[in-house]
Amino acid sequence: MEPQAGLLIIYGITNVALVLFTAPFFEGVLRKVTAQVQSRKGPPVLQPYFDLLKLLGKEDIEVGENPTMQRFAAYLSLAAILTVATLVPMGTGIPMNRAGDTILLIYLLTLCGIATLFAGMAAGSLYSLVGMSREMMAMMTLEPLLAAGLVIASIHAGSLRLDAVMNGAIYGTGAFPLSGLMMLGVLLFSLQGFVGRLPFDITEAETEIMEGPLMEYSGPKLALFKYLQMAKLVVYSAIFIALFAPWGNTLFFPLNLGIFLIKVLVLVLLVTLVAAIHPRYRIDQAIRYFAGMFIISVVALIFAVCGL
Amino acid sequence: MTAANAILLALVISAAGALITLLFSKNKAVAGWISFFITALSGLLAIYAAATVLLSGPGEAVTILSLPAAGSAFRIYVDGLSAIFLGLIATIAILSAFFSISYMEHYKEYGVARYYPYFLLFVAGMYGIVTVTDMMVFFFIFWQLMTLSSYALVRYEYKKRGNVRAANKYLLMMQIACLLIMAASGMLAESSATIGTETVQQYDFDAIRHGLPGLLQSSSGLVTIAFLLYLVGFGIKAGMWPFGQMWLPDAHPAAPSPVSSLLSGVMIKTGVYGLMRSFLWLIPENALPYYPNRGWGLIIAVIGTITLFIGTMQALKQEQSKRLLAFHSIGQVGYILLGLGACIALISTGWRNEAVMGLAAIAFYGAIFHTINHGTFKSLLFLNAGSMLYATDTQDLNKLGGLIKYMPVTAVMTLIASFSIAGVPLFNGFASKWSIYVATILGSSTAPYLGVCALFAILTSVITLASFMKFFGVSFLSRTSALVAQKASRKPLLEVNWMMQFPQLILAALCLVFGIIPIGAYQLIEQALDSSQQGLAAGLAKMPLANLDGVVGIASTGGTALFDPLVLIIVLGIMFLAAMVISRLGGAQKRVDEPWLCGYAQDGEQHRYGAHHLYSGIKRYFRWIGGKPGTHL
Questions:
Q1: How many CB atoms lie within 10 A of CB B183?
Q2: B477, A306: Cβ pair inside 8 Å?
Q3: Given A63, A139, A160, which is nearest B560 (Cβ)?
Q4: 3-class DSSP state for residue B131?
Q5: What is the DSSP string of B384-424?
Q6: Domain range spanning residue A92?
Q7: Could you say which residues of chain B have pLDDT below 70?
Q8: Bridge-based pairing state of the strands B198-200 and B193-195
Q9: What distance in Å separates the CA atoms of residue A205 and residue A191, rounded to the nearest whole number?
Q10: Are the beta carbons of B462 and A63 separated by less than 8 Å?
Q11: Tally of helices (H runs) and strands (E runs) in chain B
Q12: H or E, element range at A191
């Protein structure tokens, strides 16, 4: 049975609020644990909240080639990821289930990337263009992986509807869900790339190209991009959970929400541990790595269309 | 006035107009305005014909001249499929004729006596090819009219040797295509036939269709060869891999920009039209059991996938604006072929199965919707590139940069077109790609290879995005280049005049309208299918549009996929506002300042990061795929 429109709006507000309020917390956990792994003390877990508040109050210096486009890019970055949040189940229902499907989800995720691309191009400096070029190359190799996962899940579900697909459909109904397990491996090993963390934080690469596309940003607009990076942690985890570990969504409120947050925390800890012990890859190494993943996911897709 | 008569009148007006513009060709502006009015008049007649057919069904075919000895007749018949293509050709032709008036003034060395007359004949040739039913003599006449006049337009700047070479190559390929198509028709044609009360000649489309069920049963090998010839012949015209690469990337940039937009936006679509006519419309429903459409669907879908991937990957390497767009035309035709192939493949197995048949219908909707959309955004992009060329005298993206300050209107138009072709949601390219993906992903339970094709199509869509981020980014954003700074020092605003902006505004508006209200386009296509009761199209027409309660957007039959742009606009808008509010929460002060250049004194031309450098990490893994960035101008 389809939920009422009012309930969908409540789901939507819940999802957006969840991303906005918990994302800095997960970022804080990530920083703290990274520090512990690297034998440092690390900032308090709430530090990212303070960072965002501080940036929101800082002077907003517009130095790029085209300030209008830079502003547009900054607003688009957060707007896109929050819109994606309404297409993904986060413990409760899917708010935009009646307005879009899996294909829209794939394309809206590129919209977040487009915001970063615009940021880089509108700034116009050498480093930001290098960063923009890297971001685009990363998107070209990463997006097909997620698309493959969603396409396989859709083929198994026989539908592109979000409620049918984002429900563990990737495992299909077979006794041994080969294609689903292959995609689990692929997406697990490329999760770092999706959330833009080490060893795949090639776009920003602070020590190398000085945050690339974000180089000419400061103050509140920088805060929006930082928010985007934190929100990606939650949103991509939510997509991962919906595809591979959707169990517990049918429980009563607020237990379902609690289980969801615990699952996100587990994934964030995983991302943190990998990031803390790996140095950054070069872009060509990353492309080769993800190209290998792509070949595996094409094989998985072939298995999926053959019913495996 | 019936639709067929309106088309006949449009053809006569265009031919007469060609003579009149030739007489007035001494004065560029006068010839330009006359040509515009004639294009508008004939275009409105074509649109009238299309609208009549869509609203009240196809009328009677009109036979003007019969040549029984040659087995041919000059017979005009406008049905739903013709109507869609007529509307597209007329719209783009009128807009590019208007764009030409100002644009042609920047050719100092060349007069317009070799431009406007050919322009009018070219458009007339296209009207003819999508309405004439004869597949031999009069097909030849209109094909040659279209080819020879566009050949003249491609070699307009005949003093450049590269352009003449491109034009010759184009002419050769089109003659081969013509030969193949006529050979195929010759193989299929048997004898004249009497359909209803009308007797049609041997080489008429309806006569061939009438005899096809018998031919399929008696000599299926012959029919297969004939259809293969159709596929190659129309494929050459459409830009299908590997034939498109042989002429298209050289011919499109060589022509003046308004003509490039006609070549790329509509002329290559006559190839698509031919493929749809031969592979769907030519097959009567009772011949379906003998027609190996599963195989044809496989071939066309796979070739489509190869075309879209290779064409787009080659486009990614390009550094000349119009050459880049030309390669993308190949890539986008690949999407159309994929949709068409999926439709043909799904029809065969699912004729009685409503769910599969619904997917075949949505594949067809996707193919023809993408044809319309590609017509609008690619024409727009060529007009954008033309405006840039007009303002800066170069097609070299490496020499451009920071144009948004000097050409703000063109910049916004280019952005809309780039988003459309890259398939950003809420722009028209997304809606048609969506339809193709739905059909291919869900259709993979019937034809398994379609799922793999869909993944490559999604991958290619990201490559398209990369290419257009480059196209838009390095020319309009990025640092102001030395060339742009020098041009701007002579003239503060490089923006083209309103006469060149206006056609771009209309096309950009169309991109947005079809993107936000795709159901409008769907209804148009449904109407077109309802008014073409020939062959397999009649079966497709029986599939009703899926309507889901409370969803205003588009949906597949059975509601297994849906997309509602209006809700998306609202949600995205609210989130955008939320982002703006959040950024203002701290009450931060704004200040404009010079960028910090890491201690270096200035950011010189040699430090600019241009089109050549972008994506080098990807490009070097795809050297084998070909498509060397050529140099024009």
A1: 15
A2: no
A3: A160
A4: coil
A5: HHHHHHHHHS--BGGG---GGGT-HHHHHHHHHHHHHHHT-
A6: 5-305
A7: 349-352, 544-552, 595-603, 630-633
A8: antiparallel
A9: 17
A10: no
A11: 23, 7
A12: helix A178-195
What are the distances in angstroms from CA B464 to CA A193, B306, B328, B460? Answer: 21, 15, 8, 6
Cβ neighbours of A214 in B, within 8 Å: none
Cα separation of A300 and A146, whole Å?
A: 12
Whether residue B127 contacts residue B42, with contact meaning beta carbons closer than 8 Å, is answered with yes
Q: Is B571 close to A99, i.e. CB distance below 8 A?
A: yes
Domain of residue B509: give its range: 292-519
- Identify whether the C-beta of residue A212 lies closer than 8 Å to the C-beta of residue A132: yes
d(CA B207, CA B415): 48
Residue B475 within a domain:
yes
**What is the Cα Rg of chain A in Å?**
19
**Of all helices (H) and strands (E), which one includes residue B591?**
strand B590-592
Nearest-by-Cβ selection for A151 from B441, B563, B583? B441
- CB-based contact (8 Å) between A96 and chain B? yes
Structure token pair of residue B378: 């690619």
Cα(B451)–Cα(A154) distance, integer angstroms: 10
Do residues B312 and B467 touch, judged by C-beta distance below 8 A?
yes
pLDDT given at position B112: 86
- Taking contacts as CB-CB distances below 8 angstroms, the residues of chain B near A141 are 618
The number of domains in chain A is: 1
Crossing angle of helices B498-516/B354-392, nearest 10°?
A: 160
| Distance separating alpha carbons of residues A86 and A88, to the nearest angstrom | 6
Question: Does A106 lie at the interface with B, CB-CB under 8 angstroms?
Answer: yes
Q: With an 8 Å Cβ cutoff, are A155 and B444 in contact?
A: yes
Give the closest-approach CA distance of B448 to chain A in angstroms.
5
Q: Tokens standing for B361?
A: 């219908």
Give the minimum alpha-carbon distance from A40 to chain B in angstroms, rounded to a whole number. Answer: 30
Q: Residue B250 falls within a domain, yes or no?
A: no
Beta carbons within 10 angstroms of residue B218's beta carbon: 10
Phi, psi of B240, rounded to the nearest 5 degrees: -65, 145
Angle at which helix B116-129 crosses helix B28-56, to 10 degrees, equals 10
Mean pLDDT of chain A: 86
Question: Could you give the number of structural domains in chain B?
Answer: 1
Q: How far apart are CA B232 and CA B327, in angstroms?
A: 19
Going along B56-214, which residue ranges are E strands? Answer: 62-67, 72-76, 193-195, 198-200
Q: Report strand pairing: B62-67 vs B562-563.
A: unpaired
B167 within a domain of the structure (yes/no):
no
Task: Please name which of B340, B308, B336 lies closest in space to residue B456, comparing C-alpha atoms.
Answer: B308
- Find where tokens 């200035």 sit: B602
**What is the widest separation between alpha-carbon atoms in chain B?**
86
Is B438 a domain residue?
yes
Nearest Cα neighbor of B526 from B370, B375, B365, B367 is B365
Give per-residue pLDDT as tens, B119-159: 999 999 999 999 999 989 999 999 999 999 999 999 998 88
Please give the structure tokens belonging to residue B541: 């027409």
Which sign, positive or negative, has the C-alpha torsion B435, B238, B533, B218? negative
> φ and ψ at B62, to 5 degrees?
-115, 125
At residue B70, φ and ψ (nearest 5 deg) are: -90, -5
Give, in order, the Cα–Cα distances in Å from A250 to each of A84, A257, B335: 21, 10, 40
ipTM, two decimals: 0.92
With contact defined as beta carbons under 8 Å apart, do A180 and A171 qualify? yes
| A91 phi-psi bin (left φ>0, alpha ψ -120 to 50, beta other) | left
pLDDT in tens, B523-575: 888 888 888 877 888 778 777 666 555 566 787 777 788 888 888 999 999 99
Across the interface, whether the CB atoms of B402 and A65 are under 8 A apart is answered: yes
What sign does the CA torsion over B409, B415, B417, B420 have?
negative
Amino acid (one-letter) located at B406: Y
Cα separation, B204 vs B202, in Å, equals: 6
The pLDDT of residue B411: 92
**Average model confidence (pLDDT) for chain B?**
88
